[in-house]
Amino acid sequence: MKKEYLLLMAIFFGSLISNVTASPLPCPKNSTITLEEWVKVKTENGLDISIATSQLNGKSYLKIKFENTTEKSLDFSWTLVKNNHILVQDMSQKVANKVSIEIFDATMLFEANQNTLKDFNIILNFKK
Prior knowledge:
There is one protein chain. With about 130 residues, this protein is mainly beta. It has one domain. Helices cover about 10% and strands about 50% of the residues. The strands form 2 sheets. A 4-stranded antiparallel β-sheet has the order 1-8-5-6, with no helix packed on it. A hairpin with a 2-residue loop joins strand 3 (about 45-55) and strand 4.
C-alpha cells in the first residue's frame, strides 16, 4: 500500500505542462466485467489501457492499468471522465518499457460496478 501511495503522490507532484495530442478512450459499453478481472479497453501508441473493479469495505471501485508494450519509455498524461464530469485531470505519467502500473489508491476512489463502468472515459495525451 505504501508503494501505491508513493506512486500517487509522484503522479500528483509530477504533473507537467507540454504539447500533447488528445485521444478519447471509450470504456466498453456492453461488457460484463467480473470484479478483479482486467479488461483491456484500448491500445494506443503501444500503451495498453485496462480497467477493473476492486472491493473495499463492501463497495466496488475503479482500477486503471497502463501497460507499456514498447521498447521505449512512454511519457503521457491522462484525464478520467465520468458522464462528462472530469474526475482526474492531466495526471502526468511515465511508464518504462515493458512495465505496467496500476492506479488504485484510497485517496483517489471512484465507485464503479458492472453497470457504471461504461460511464467512464479516459483521455490520453502523449508528450512529444
